[in-house]
Specification:
The structure holds 2 protein chains of 2 kinds. Chain A is an all-alpha fold. Helices cover 76% and strands 0% of the residues of chain A. In chain A, α4 (67-75) crosses α15 (253-288). Chain B has one domain (56-298): MetI-like fold, CATH 1.10.3720. Helix content of chain B is 74%, strand content 1%. Chain B has 13 helices and 2 strands; from the N terminus they run ααββααααααααααα. Chain B has helices spanning 2-9, 11-37, 54-60, 63-95, 102-110, 117-127, 134-141, 155-183, 187-195, 200-227, 232-237, 251-261, 265-298, and strands spanning 40-41, 49-50. Chain B has a two-stranded antiparallel sheet. In chain B, α4 (63-95) packs across α12 (251-261) and α12 (251-261) packs antiparallel against α13 (265-298). The model of chain B is unreliable at 1-6 (pLDDT under 50). The chains are: A mainly alpha, B mainly alpha. Chains A and B meet through α1, α2, α3, α5 and α6 of A and α2, α5, α6, α7 and α8 of B.
């Protein structure tokens, strides 16, 4: 990696001693596009610190002083931290299930030559093409039958059957884990499940880390499922609470901006720290797909 | 020895069993049950009564269903065409050596993709609201308009706004995928072509584009499946109303509204399967046209 950038640098020096105008234009366009992408987030943060009167009267560039007021106003109806906690519980547990059962299933398909292996694996792949909303009404029904309506479990349990996870981890196992590892574990007398839990699972860490990022983001941002399956305010995850801001504070814009900002800021912070990993995992997922 | 491996291989069923059990309960059963419900009338309280094809006949003549399909399609096309093209151009540019700050641009363009769609929808709604919206106030501040424009009353504008949110969220994602694909194309190949005198544009159309075809097809198909299910952005943007004049009412919003706010679960299920049929048809068409083109080029 380092040597590659060095080579690039040398290339650059040799090639472009004079700066081409087209290169400047391209940079300017890139910067403009970046600004367009960022401005709404800037507005969100700045407007969240202003009173409704300020917001109604003029275009605002700089932060105001109404942050605390807006915050206190918001907490009267919406417990945003509770929303965070709910989102964390739901996304965290969903991700754990997706990773463990995805890996378990992938390992079963990759290393055991049972009858129907290929057909069943194709079946798993085919389920990826089925739109999720097709079973929305039926999902509501099964959760009612199982007495899971208005519980976290209704959102968490289905995560154990994530077809993309199976596909992704199986690719990784096929490419990196030789049969010898399993054979030697068997020689040592380890049971099949012990082999998986103690030896295979740790070897899958790189794949699971990339997949985990995907799964967590997907679950964190899930909107329609909690909207359909949960009914109590204290159980709503963040996206649903943010949506409810409109109902509670229809004409109090400062509060709504603040609510949106609070829901987005943690994502900004996490992304600033882990952007390389997150983008990397998207790229890996796409190439494998 | 042979019998021993055979015995071990049946363990495979145990490893895949949990996934399949969960899938049957939470994946397959809901779809089958929705299919069954689409032939019934069910309000969620009493028992479903079978009504045969009535829901589908109603769907066939339902103005709002067609309108929602039309809205979904327009919103999707207006967002996906720039999404897939702009991102490709950006990927090629950010793959060039002379560009500075590549990783920052990549991060900034990709970032909206991981932000909650519901938050973005509400944010855009706030920015474009009538008297207090910052967009109107910005236009007034720079003197472009004297009075605030009521954007939320303009059907085409609001559809365009949904498309813009989708574009904003997905062009960076597409770009990352294209970049991953570009990294699979050897630089030597591209440089050899340039040394032979091919312009950058020529290299792009003659080498890069054909080699990226599988990735483009992958993106088109996944964007059809995703695009036909647009829900979060228009729902949050219009507080679930799909207004003005039902212009931002997408098919999944109509499905949600029918089943979960009007408690017509049978008809809601029929909408889901109607939409599914449309998705299947579109996927087949896009597959077929892409394949036909590849074959023509090979000739």
């Amino acid at each position: 990696m380092i040597s590659e950038t060095k080579v690039e640098a040398i290339h650059d020096k040799r090639k472009s001693k004079r700066i081409k105008p087209s290169h400047i234009i391209i940079h300017i366009l890139l910067i403009l596009l970046a600004i367009v992408c960022i401005v709404p987030f800037y507005i969100m943060i700045v407007y969240g610190t202003h009173t409704n009167a300020d917001i109604a009267s003029k275009f605002i560039f700089f932060p105001g002083e109404a942050l605390i007021d807006n915050y206190q106003n918001m907490t009267e109806n919406i417990n945003i931290w509770r929303g965070f906690l709910n989102s964390f519980i739901i996304a965290g547990c969903s991700t754990a299930l997706t990773l463990y059962f995805g890996a378990l299933n992938a390992y079963g398909f990759a290393k055991y030559k049972f009858r129907g292996n290929k057909v069943l694996f194709w079946f798993v792949l085919a389920t990826m093409m089925v739109p999720q909303q097709l079973g929305l009404v039926g999902t509501f029904r099964i959760m009612y039958i199982l007495n899971l309506l208005d519980t976290y479990a209704a959102l968490i349990l289905p995560a154990a059957a994530n077809a993309f996870a199976v596909f992704f981890v199986k690719q990784f196992i096929d490419g990196t884990i030789p049969d010898e590892v399993i054979e030697s574990a068997r020689m040592d007398g380890a049971s099949e499940f012990k082999t998986f839990n103690r030896i295979i699972l740790p070897m899958l860490t790189p794949a699971l880390a990339a997949l985990g990022i995907f799964a967590f983001i997907g679950s964190w941002n899930n909107f329609i499922s909690p909207l359909v399956l949960l009914f109590s305010n204290e159980k709503y995850p963040l996206p649903v609470l943010v949506q409810m801001l409109q109902g509670y504070y229809g004409s109090n814009y400062g509060v709504q901006y603040l609510g949106v900002a609070l829901s987005v800021l943690p994502i900004i912070i996490v992304f600033t720290i882990f952007s390389k990993r997150i983008i990397g995992s998207v790229a890996i997922g796409a190439v494998k797909g | 020895m042979f019998s021993k491996t055979l015995r071990k291989d049946t363990y495979g069923y145990l490893f895949i069993a949990p996934f399949f059990i969960i899938f049957l309960v939470f994946g397959l059963y809901p779809i089958m049950y929705s299919f069954y419900l689409s032939f019934t009338d069910w309000d969620g309280f009493t028992n479903p009564t079978i009504v045969g094809l009535e829901n589908y006949l109603r769907l066939f003549g339902d103005f709002f269903f067609y309108k929602s399909l039309f809205n979904t399609l327009v919103i999707w096309i207006v967002s996906v065409i720039p999404q897939l093209t702009v991102s490709l151009v950006l990927a090629v540019i950010l793959h060039e050596k002379f560009v500075k700050g590549k990783s920052i641009f990549r991060a900034v363009f990709f970032f909206p993709n991981i932000v909650t769609a519901a938050s973005l929808g509400l944010l855009v709604a706030l920015i474009f609201s009538w008297q207090t919206g910052s967009f109107n106030q910005f236009l007034m501040a720079i003197g472009m308009i004297n009075d605030p424009i009521q954007w939320t009353d303009m059907p085409n504008f609001m559809r365009g706004l949904v498309s813009s949110i989708l574009f904003w969220q997905y062009f960076g994602y597409s770009m990352i995928i294209y970049i991953a694909g570009l990294q699979g194309i050897s630089r030597d190949l591209l440089e050899a072509a340039e040394i032979d005198g091919a312009s950058k544009v020529r290299v792009f159309f003659s080498i890069t584009l054909p080699l990226l075809k599988p990735i483009i097809l992958f993106q088109v198909v996944t964007s059809i499946i995703g695009g036909m299910q647009i829900f979060d952005q228009p729902y949050a943007l219009t507080d679930g109303s799909g207004q003005p004049d039902n212009s931002t009412l997408t098919s999944v919003m109509y499905l949600y509204e029918t089943a979960f706010t009007r408690y017509q679960y049978g008809y809601g299920s029929a909408i889901a399967f109607g939409l599914f049929l449309v998705i299947v048809v579109f996927s087949i068409i896009s597959f077929a046209t892409m394949n036909a083109r590849t074959k023509n080029e090979q000739k």
